[in-house]
Design goal:
Length: 305
């Protein structure tokens, strides 16, 4: 059975600033902000939420089915997905635009500044989800605004359970939009910053949001693990100490690959995020969002799977 991953495919340009943003950005001068960061290292990586989630899920033995758009420069990414063994059935090429691009600067405290050009991602809504017995569950990850709205509606209509994962796309939506997504989704996943924004815009706490038809709401806390809310009850799942802290880019997506794998196996939410926490810790020790390796058997054995 497949897991449909609706989200972006992007090329990431990742740089490292060997200092602290806080020492360069003066709060009292932000009204005339003009800063430049010298970044001695630079890498180009395959990225985008859909690609990163698929990478994690595939290594665990899942069957990711990516629904995304690439631009006229996307042949390299298509080859990469084929090499991973990921189906290109729902990967479309938009010939009059470029593939989405993310330019990321990370400082020595793992704070990040990102510039993102959506490119072909802005046309992701051209793809439509139909009922398909081979699709077990899905995720609506950050994508073009219209695509996120339409794909959530289509998944609900097709009766395919899905995770709503607004990520960095959350600011595009007001309280009414977010309430609609919540009403359509089966699970919601946000990080701690997004959780605060979600609560502010809906006027409800995470516990209150979870007291609904939702099967669970996940709030990730980085190294501190995550909180799982089920029908208003909060369970804290501790984090996993990483062997090294090298690059946080793609950690949330790696986590979501583990989450989807657990859910696809019929595990409960706490067990699923326990695995997801371990994968996030493995990913952060490696530079780039799709360069880490998961040793599946001992990883699953470590959580009693």
């Amino acid at each position: 059975m497949s897991v449909l991953i609706c989200g972006s495919l992007a090329f990431d340009t990742i740089t490292t600033f060997p200092g602290r943003f806080a020492q360069q950005i003066l709060p009292e001068q932000v009204h005339i902000l003009n800063v430049s960061f010298l970044v001695p290292s630079l890498r180009k990586e395959f990225g985008g939420c859909a690609g990163n989630i698929a990478y994690s899920l595939k290594q665990l033995g899942g069957e990711p089915l990516v629904m995304a758009t690439l631009g006229k420069d996307g042949a390299l990414y298509r080859n990469h997905l084929e090499h991973m063994g990921v189906s290109l059935q729902h990967v479309r090429t938009v010939e009059d635009d470029y593939t989405a691009q993310a330019i990321i600067i990370t400082d020595q405290d793992n704070n990040q500044i990102t510039a993102f050009h959506p490119g072909a991602m802005g046309q992701a809504h051209i793809q439509r989800i139909e009922a398909d017995a081979a699709i077990q569950l899905a995720i609506v990850a950050p994508d073009g605004r219209d695509a996120m709205i339409q794909h959530a509606e289509q998944l609900q209509a097709a009766k395919i359970p899905f995770v709503f994962d607004p990520g960095q796309g959350l600011p595009m939506f007001d309280g009414a939009d977010l309430e609609r997504f919540i009403s359509q989704a089966t699970w919601v996943a946000v990080n701690d910053y997004e959780a605060k924004l979600l609560a502010d815009r809906t006027g409800r706490s995470l516990a209150e949001i979870s007291q609904s038809h939702l099967q669970g709401l996940i709030e990730t806390l980085g190294a501190d693990g995550c909180n799982v809310y089920i029908q208003g009850e909060k369970t804290h799942v501790p984090g996993v100490k990483a062997d090294a802290v090298i690059d946080p880019t793609g950690c949330g997506d790696a986590f979501r690959g583990g989450l989807l794998f657990g859910l696809s196996q019929g595990w409960d939410l706490v067990k699923s995020v326990t695995l997801a926490n371990r994968i996030g810790a493995i990913k952060i020790a490696v530079a780039g969002p799709q360069n880490y390796t998961l040793d599946r058997a001992p990883l699953l054995a470590s959580i009693g799977a």
